[in-house]
Amino acid sequence: MTDSTPTGFASLGLPFSILRTLDELGYEAPSPIQASSIPSLLEGRDVLGMAQTGTGKTAAFALPILARTQAEMNSPQVLVLAPTRELAQQVAEAVKTYSKYLPGINVSAIYGGTDYGTQLRELKRGPQWVVGTPGRVMDHLRRGTLNLADIKAVVLDEADEMLRMGFIDDVNWILEQAPKQRQVALFSATMPKEIQAVAEKHLTDPVQVKIKTKTTTNDKIRQRYWFVGGVHKNDALLRICEVEDFDAMMVFVRTKQATEEVADFMQANGFKCAPLNGDIPQQLREKAVEKLKAGKLDILVATDVAARGLDVERISHVINYDIPQDTESYVHRIGRTGRAGREGEAIVFVRGREKRMLRDIEKATRQSIEEMPLPTAKDVNAKRKERFQARILDAIHSEKNQVFRDMIEAILVENPVDTLDVAAAIARLVQGNKPLFLDEKNDGRMMERREREPREKRERGDRPERGDRGRKALPEARPKPLKGQPDVEMERYIVSVGYDDGLRPGNLVGAVANEAELESRFIGHIEILETFSVIDLPQGMPPATMAVLRKARVCGQPLDMKVYKEADIPQRQAKKPRPDRGPKKPHRGGKPGGKPEFKKRKPKTDR
């Protein structure tokens, strides 16, 4: 009889709608503060938590309180106070993400430095969650634009930071405006007497949670980060692997699906690579680790849970392909390298919205993480040239090569050709159709898609709104000629799915080829940006086919395909499925001349 006891987040009593979101986000196991806080908050108890930043406390209070929020009640039920605008934005975004499968939940973020008009409109819509800084929350309360009459829970996030910034009197005043019968969760990295006084005054019989985190990292591990932009993560990982001198490597990703996708990509580009996730049988996981130890594998792509207990001295590099959810996980991850007194390398990929987590890691570990430039095409090509020449030199063996020497001698005797020309021709045959070198000419333009401003400026929160990201180098409106078939007239389209949604070129090709019944050879240039993508398809797409592609879903999002216009670049809002249902899907086919043709076909059942 098998043990059916729930594990992970499922064991904490969270509803399925939230567990489903956590599974999609790749959250496999709760952090210590989440495991200690969630059950008590689900029961409605007050919680006094002492934990450093980056330990996962946003999820610790957001998940259980979301589970108790009433979506049908359009008035503020939860108030979260945060010391800074950046933290308020981060918490609001997290709550929106966690409530993906909780229809009707609305979140409003209110803080200084922005106009009241937008905030007033949001508050009038009746959000169940309000996240704000103390000063702006007080302003709205005094103006009468925020009503706390229906508040069921108040969260004080980073209370010691609010004390340091002089907000503690404001916090006390705001708590006095809330109903007496409400739940309070107070989180603080330290517990000075002023914070203890707030807890004693406003919390009722709180459950006390104190988390001690391991925050030291091996000083023999060099830590760097790459700020994601211009190049997709897979391509960046490939460049790093080609340029860095590594013995063995661990690549950490957030989801099981990502382990497969990244491992497949690296294998296709010549690296001995294998995935490691919880769905892979234990026997096969052990075999993969043994291969890594024996030098039969170069890279393992793993989730945190699958990599638990893994100890391989060969690992010289750890790549955080997805930044971890908390500092504790980061410390555990990079601890896979630098073993037995050896030096190690740790690199983390950081998106714009994740830079606060980077600062949390630096603060918790008390170590600076230096920014690294992505290797250029010239850097990669120099390494490829070096390796290709080494392969040729390694293959020089007089006895084993005798039969080939005889054939080449015959060629030289019978044909008036140069010996170097023959050697070059053989090298080209060895390389095959895949180009040996990257395109150095266009590399600079691609890398400039996100001009890096100084890190200090980024850390002040000076960044464009989500809808403006990537606008420095928008794709051209003119489509590129179809490779091998320049006579096929192409048209450029835009789709509302991008890298932020996890889109890969293969996903888009598969969706278009399948949904539009179009042969993949007629699918042209694809360019994927953070929040949208462009794709070149044959001109003359019938309206019926366009209707199908508009509502087709990829990576959980509707394509919403349109003819490319700069005005149609999507703003990064919560996406909703389009209500229109397209007509019958067209048929894939081609005329004898090789031209694409869209034909009607019989409707079929949903797959």
Question: What is this structure's SSE topology?
Answer:
Elements: H1 16-25, H2 32-42, E1 47-50, H3 57-67, E2 78-81, H4 85-98, E3 107-110, H5 116-124, E4 129-132, H6 134-143, E5 153-156, H7 159-164, H8 168-177, E6 183-188, H9 193-202, E7 207-210, E8 221-227, H10 233-243, E9 248-252, H11 256-268, E10 273-276, H12 282-294, E11 299-302, E12 315-320, H13 327-334, E13 344-350, H14 355-365, E14 370-371, H15 377-394, H16 402-414, H17 419-431, H18 443-447, H19 455-459, E15 490-495, H20 505-515, E16 526-528, E17 533-538, H21 543-551, E18 553-554, E19 557-558, E20 562-563, E21 586-590, E22 596-600
Parallel strand pairs: 1-6, 1-7, 2-4, 2-5, 3-4, 5-6, 8-13, 8-14, 9-11, 9-12, 10-11, 12-13
Antiparallel strand pairs: 15-17, 15-20, 16-17, 18-19, 21-22
Q: What report would you give on this structure?
A:
The structure is a single chain. It is built from 21 helices and 22 strands. With about 600 residues, the chain is α/β, with parallel strands linked by helices. It folds into four domains: about 200 residues, P-loop containing nucleotide triphosphate hydrolases (Rossmann fold); about 160 residues, Rossmann fold (3-Layer(aba) Sandwich), CATH 3.40.50; about 55 residues, no CATH class; about 120 residues, RRM (RNA recognition motif) domain (Alpha-Beta Plaits, 2-Layer Sandwich). The strands form five sheets. Strands 3-4-2-5-6-1-7 form a seven-stranded parallel sheet, with helices on both faces. A seven-stranded parallel sheet has the order 10-11-9-12-13-8-14, sandwiched between helices. Strands 16-17-15-20 form a four-stranded antiparallel sheet, with no helix packed on it. The chain is globular and about 100 Å long. DEAD-box RNA helicase involved in various cellular processes at low temperature, including ribosome biogenesis, mRNA degradation and translation initiation. Keywords: ATP-binding, Cytoplasm, Helicase, Hydrolase, Nucleotide-binding, RNA-binding, Stress response. InterPro entries: CsdA_RRM, DbpA/CsdA_RNA-bd_dom, DEAD/DEAH_box_helicase_dom, DEAD/DEAH_RhlB, DEAD_box_RNA_helicases, DeaD_dimer, DEAD_helicase_DeaD, Helicase_ATP-bd. GO terms for molecular function: helicase activity.
